[in-house]
Design a protein that fits this description.
six-stranded antiparallel sheet; Elongation Factor Tu (Ef-tu), domain 3; 3 domains; alpha/beta; single chain; Rossmann fold
Length: 429
């Protein structure tokens, strides 16, 4: 039977929003002096805000175990939304409490820094928001000529400084420090997140795979194809549909990790292929990377294949792809070539349709039907060609522009599809 609901993501939200702060609030409420009763609510707001920010920082370390469970795009969306909610609660905390001296100073510095970073991140790093708010998207395109990828990464890291200031702020409050169960929990959680963050920045890079560029060529307007040879000793856990983070240590401006989907199913030759469109300063510079250049690789990340593995192997697979968003789905098709596949692939221009020879090859198979066209498919075109009883025996993989993906999600749900039947990955950071 198909999984029609995404229980793991709902459970993740429940833990992040309610369960994580619960123990902090419980230990704090048992020890707060009654003299501060009028500030209790504001103190709780500040505590929840701090816990959410700690969790947001932990998510920024890209824990692979959590990626395979709910997906990194979902993690980053939660990271952004929790950060916004934390700022709101921090403001209520600030307005509802009275402090002075260094207690007030460190608290104000932390809040002001968080607020500034939140505004910056909403423009440059929260694609899940800018893709839905046109004016923010326009502002981003204008400003990113100055605030390039590497600079944005370093600015975003100032969140650690803001958390440290909030930590010092709490340590200076004598009646809070006197609540030993709370302060042990507070310090312990802060230490754990700090260690995880430091490991991700200084230890984990030592484990990155060192690949070599075998080929770098233009396959369409503004699209580069990179073939990368992994080392013979590679232990990278790559699945079909995955993406990897790449950095080029020998090229200024390309030294910070950036995610790209693999276009081929993992193979014994340990060669991965990527098709990359030049949308930002990082991707536009890829054309200068020469053969035999070194590349650092972290991966794999993604849930396309894990999603399919969670469903019955007899279920039909329908793929809805647009433009460069077809890239991870190409490798997914290769890895599931014996399944019943229905493919709808579209692009704005004929020249933007990538790897047509692969679709011609797949079309020869009796279990695969490929529909390619220039311009978006109409709803009725897709709905009338879906397998019989598709609400019960079909899963959907979607890749493409944000507006396209959300359109098809809406259409499918309106016609009876469940959340658990649909999977997509929105590169929104």
């Amino acid at each position: 039977m198909l999984k029609r609901h995404r229980y793991s993501f709902g459970l993740f939200w429940l833990i992040a929003i309610f369960l994580l702060p619960l123990s902090f609030i419980q230990t704090l409420s048992n020890g707060l002096p009654i003299i501060y009763q009028s500030e209790f609510r504001a103190i709780y707001y500040g505590t929840i805000a701090y816990v959410w920010m700690l969790f947001a920082i932990y998510l920024s370390t890209k824990p692979k175990w959590l990626d395979r469970l709910i997906g990194l795009p979902e993690m980053y969306m939660v990271h952004g939304m929790l950060s916004i909610a934390a700022i709101v609660l921090a403001y209520l905390h600030k307005e509802g409490t009275v402090s002075s001296g260094w207690i007030k100073t460190t608290g104000d510095w932390s809040f002001d820094l968080f607020l500034g970073l939140m505004i910056y991140s909403l423009i440059f790093m929260a694609g899940w928001l800018t893709n839905r708010v046109p004016i923010l998207k326009q502002i981003k395109h204008i400003l990113e000529k100055v605030f390039k990828h590497e600079l944005s990464i370093w600015i975003h890291r100032l969140n650690i400084l803001a958390v440290i200031l909030a930590f010092i702020h709490v340590q200076l409050i004598s009646y809070i420090v006197a609540i030993k169960p709370f302060i042990y929990l507070f310090d312990g959680a802060s230490l754990i997140v700090l260690v995880c963050y430091l490991v991700s920045k200084f230890v984990q890079p030592l484990t990155y795979q060192q690949g070599i560029i075998l080929l770098n060529r233009t396959i369409a307007k503004n699209v580069q194809e990179l073939k990368i040879k992994l080392p013979r000793s590679s232990h990278m856990n790559l699945l079909a549909g995955d993406y990897v983070f790449l950095a080029f240590p020998d090229y200024p401006g390309l030294r910070e990790m950036h995610p790209f989907s693999i276009a081929n199913a993992p193979n014994k030759e340990r060669v991965i292929t990527l098709a990359i469109r030049g949308d930002g300063d990082f991707t536009r510079e890829l054309g200068q990377v020469t053969t035999d250049s070194r590349v650092q690789i972290d991966g794999g990340y993604g849930r396309y294949q894990a999603f399919l593995d969670d469903q019955p192997q007899t279920s039909n697979i329908v793929i809805l792809a647009g433009g460069i968003g077809v890239t991870p789905l190409l490798s997914t098709i290769d890895a599931n070539i014996d399944r019943n596949l229905k493919i709808f692939y579209t692009a704005h221009k004929q020249d933007d349709l990538l790897y047509l020879e692969r679709f011609d090859h797949w079309q020869q198979r009796p279990n695969i039907d490929c529909q390619l066209q220039v311009g978006r498919f109409k709803d009725v075109q897709v709905l009338t060609q879906l397998p019989k009883d598709w609400q019960k025996n079909t899963v959907f993989l979607i890749g493409g522009p944000s507006s396209m993906m959300h359109h098809w999600i809406k259409v499918l749900k309106q016609n009876g599809a469940g959340n658990g039947q649909i999977y997509f990955e929105e590169f929104s950071w």
